[in-house]
Amino acid sequence: QVQLVESGGGLVQAGGSLTLSCAASRNRISRYVIGWYRQAPGSQRELVGYITPNTFTNYTDFVKGRFTISRDNAKNTVYLQMNALQPEDTAVYYCGVWGRQDSWGQGTQVTVSS
Questions:
Q1: Residue 26 has what pLDDT?
Q2: pLDDT of residue 62
Q3: Which of 57, 66, 85, 103 has the CB geometry, 3.0–4.6 Å to 97, for a possible disulfide?
């Protein structure tokens, strides 16, 4: 079973940047599609974007041009670079193997102040 751990969240002002990390300690994740998701208070969890094993990426409209997903197979880690953050980006961010909800970690909190 693949288990992922998210880190890198924090408090940032609007317009600022953060980079989140998604790491696996027990399994190699280079062969998996990895998705980033987020859940704001009172809202359902939503997809932010994903990266394939050959580094193809796709994003939902609300983050296109601001967020970038990348992966470092040597470090067994996937990243979410977030720029031009807005208060509406405030959420708990999760990563997971595509289609495998049991791989998600505890999430990392991102709070954007106005």
A1: 85
A2: 93
A3: 103
Q: Judge whether 52 and 70 are in contact, CB under 8 Å.
A: no
d(CA 68, CA 16): 14
Q: Residue 84: CB partners within 8 Å, gap ≥ 6?
A: 15, 17, 66
Does residue 66 contact residue 83 with C-beta atoms inside 8 Å?
A: yes
Q: How many CB atoms lie within 10 A of CB 26?
A: 8
Quick one: tokens of 11?
């408090």
Query: Mean pLDDT in runs of 10 for the chain (114 residues)?
Result: 94 98 91 97 96 97 96 96 97 95 93 96
